[in-house]
Predict the 3D structure of the following.
Amino acid sequence: MSTRDNSAESPVAGETTTLAPRPLGAAAPEKIRGALTRYRALAYITGVWLLVLCGEMIYKYLILDDSSTAPHWLFYIGQVHGLFYMIYLVFTIDLGIKARWRPLTTALTCLAGTIPFLSFVFEHYRTRDVKSAFGL
């Protein structure tokens, strides 16, 4: 299969299938597969830590009478989410560059790590789009 012609031989002899045209200047499918795997892993990790952070904030500010009585180790939940979010940003931008996403698509996908449950939704749609565009 060449990069110019996206037709591939089907398992059935004589039939060919046509993939969606690969964006001009996009990286090789092998590199995109690796970038997509990294992005997916960090989307889930970031989403889970964001939900843990939301739970921590509900506990600290709504359940406790005085937030100063909260255990000190709760402070680290926000730190861990922040660390994973920064890595998520790097992997999202990496995938966006390799797959030649529009800047708005990349920016919205980056922001998805800041709203509970949205990173899971964006991960689903971005994975579907990238897999169909590159035949992964």
Q: What stands out?
A: Helices lie at 29-63, 75-98, 103-111, 118-134. Confidence is low (pLDDT under 50) at residues 1-10. Residues 9 and 16 are 5 Å apart (CA to CA). The longest strand covers residues 7-9.
